[in-house]
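Researcher: Here's a chain I'd like modeled. Treat it as a single chain, no partners, no ligands.
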Amino acid sequence: MLNLYITSSNRREGKTFLTAGLAATMQSLGYATCVYKPIQTNGIERNGFMQSPDLTYVKTVDPYIKTHFSYLYKSDMEPLIASEAENEPIDIELIQREYLRITSTSDCTIIDGDSGLLSPIAPCVQTVDLVRKLQTPVVFVVTPREDSINDTLLSIYTAQEKGLEIRGVVINNIKEDCPKNLLNAIPRVIEEYTNVKILGLISHIEGKLSPEDLITSILNGVDIESIFNVKIEKLEL
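Model: Modeled as a single isolated chain. Structure tokens:
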């Protein structure tokens, strides 16, 4: 099984973009892929039903990718606060059971994290505790900003302290006006201070992105084999 947890130091770093891109790419390479969103905040109500905006985005990229969530909240607050406000507590045992069921029927399962590793999701339980329970390798998504180095190092140190398997870091949404010294410094400092490898550089893309363009962007910018720790025959041709 090829399983992965996508996370970042902040909530809006492009986790779902990378998740959708990896999922669509793996699906196109012949792997039955599922995107699992254990906890979704900022749910959208349409026609009387709540929808996960992140999983809806994944479906627009490839409708054949299976998707699943366990908890869906309308609030855009941190998961613990959202669950308390809507009186639906989060049970990580339930998440583990659903994760095991999903992985038993998929070749590749990508978990789209809702928040950072230290975000509380239940009393005395943080996201990092959930990732440890699922025993899933982690990939960090970073958007190049002035505070990216500090935030990312703190997140990686937390993951290392808790014994998580870190596959690497993907730097996402690189804009043309990004200072060259900043863009050069982020990968160098991350690798130097953490021994965690940079496995992808993805440029900012203007306008609506087609599924084909997204897959091309992933294949050209991301080391898929290192992220999933697998040799993919189609990529070797």
